[in-house]
Amino acid sequence: MVKIAYHPLYAHPLPEGHRFPMLKYELIPAQLLHEGVITQENLFAPEQLKEETVLLSHAPEYWTQLSDLTLPAKEQRRIGFPLNAQLLERELRIAQGTIEGALHAKEHGLAFNVAGGTHHAGSDWGEGFCLLNDQAIAANYLLHKEIYSRILIVDLDVHQGNGTAEILQHEPRIFTFSMHGEKNFPFRKEVSDLDIGLDDGLEDEAYLSILADTLPKLYEQHEPEFVFYLSGVDVLSSDKLGKLALTKAGCRERDRMVFQFCKDHRLPVQVSMGGGYSPEIRDIVDAHCNTYKVGIDLLGD
């Protein structure tokens, strides 16, 4: 059975100006349940991540400042909102949800996290609404527990996975791939194992052609045993932060290509949602729900 990490704290209200993006974390599972794509049995509420697992990926001083709520104001501004205990608990549950999802995927082929994709958090910094890097944490956990020895991270959010690249830069067992808007945030890029920077305004055909050409090469180069997929829907033409021009159909085909790649090579995959900032919440939720539908159709039990 496909498992989906969700906790009510995912939709934790943020200060005014940040609440709208949080709505999707309630609406995505609600829409999937309403359409009969999933049942309550598919959902699980993750626990909080343990400190020892945080420290596999994040620096001790940074973790202490987070856990003690003493992160300097300048660093909190870099994250984008003030630090508080509920926000930290939210991130700990998100990262744990990605770990538990990965373990579910090992057994059943596919798992999702309704939140996650916090790829701007580096080893000793938070940035872009990200405190802890869920997929980097989960990938390091799988290596540490000797569950897998070769892992691929496919990051197709419109923004580069700079934190993921930085955390994993010296870990040859994890291959980081980021395909993103070249002129978009973050403006100081880190170096992934493979970065493909895209021009503003890129449309479906060109985007999908690049991805179709790249995915087979990733397998040939790294021969992964497990995949983490960051499926941000900020690639949509409607996205106010994205600068690309994909349609919903193009975004859905992007997802299909990744899941087909995993199916063809018998690779378990954990999926985190990443960004989505279209003015109409329906566009965000529809595109994210398409990711679930395509994945479950191709890889579900």
TrEMBL record:
Keywords carried by this UniProt record: Hydrolase
Organism listed in the record: Pedobacter hartonius
Histone deacetylase domain boundaries: 21-289
GO terms for biological process, alphabetical: epigenetic regulation of gene expression
GO molecular-function terms, A-Z: histone deacetylase activity; hydrolase activity
Family (UniProt): Belongs to the histone deacetylase family.
Highest taxon of source: Bacteria
Protein name per the record: Acetoin utilization deacetylase AcuC
